[in-house]
Amino acid sequence: EEVAAVSFDGDEVVVQTKNKKLTLPFKDLVFDKCIGCPYPTPLLYDYLVGKPLPPQGTHEGLNERTKRIEALPPEERLEFWKSELERCIRCYACRNSCPLCVCKDFCSAESREPLWISHAHGIKEKWLWQVFHVLHVAGRCTGCGECERACPVGIPLLTIRHMANNVIKDLFDYEAGIKLGEKPPLLTYSVLEPKIEEEKW
Q: Strands (DSSP E) along 2-110, which ranges?
């Protein structure tokens, strides 16, 4: 049925068709990443359509999911990720949808010479592929969530990337895509990093 009008009423979306009116909770219609986006107004734009928007909340869904997994004992956390990654079919939809994964033509996941990652379908290979991809975009991932949205088997891929982003933020006080011209910390080199204590060993 054709939609005639859409309007907002507090935390609800009102959809009007020719014959009926539907009232739906806003949170059920958008991705978690959108509800908690800390930057609903673009930081850089040629022309802003509409008015600047304040943040609508926090990444509750993503943050809560991440905290819940990080709070698990290491053995349980390993089992959680094993059960999730077991479903991976290595279709590379996560890689193909990632706006930061720019080396698709020469991806190490499909390289035969040298063979970095086996083409076998065991849990080790699936695990290695996901860790490989997380590290490949670490410090550059903006948390757009396209990897998770594209995954045909519903693996919470954004959670893995969110965990890596949290480490980057804690260690280097850096968030990808926030300051124009700022270099990602993993693409630069400093002899001493203020928050890394290993040089004192």
A: 3-9, 12-17, 21-25
The mean pLDDT of 93-97, rounded to a whole number, is: 92
Report which of 174, 156, 185, 192 is spatially closest to residue 77, judged by C-alpha positions. Answer: 156
Task: Check pLDDT > 90 for residue 120.
Answer: no
Query: Is the predicted pLDDT of residue 194 greater than 70, yes or no?
Result: yes
Residue 20 buriedness (CB in 10 A; 0-12 / 13-18 / 19+): exposed
Tell whether the torsion through CA atoms of 163, 117, 77 and 29 is positive or negative.
positive
Angle between helices 157-172 and 60-70 (to 10 degrees): 80
The rounded distance, in Å, linking the Cα atoms of 117 and 132 is 9
Whole-number Å distance between alpha carbons of 126 and 116:
13
C-alpha pair distances (Å), 129 with each of 85, 108, 156: 10, 9, 15
Q: Show the tokens assigned to 188.
A: 């630069």
How far, in whole angstroms, is CA 157 from its chain's centroid?
Answer: 7
Confidence of residue 116 (pLDDT cuts 50, 70, 90): confident
DSSP string of 157-170, one letter each residue: HHHHHHHHHHHHHH
Q: What is the mean pLDDT of residues 80-109?
A: 87
Closest by CA position to 137, among listed 155, 115, 161? 161
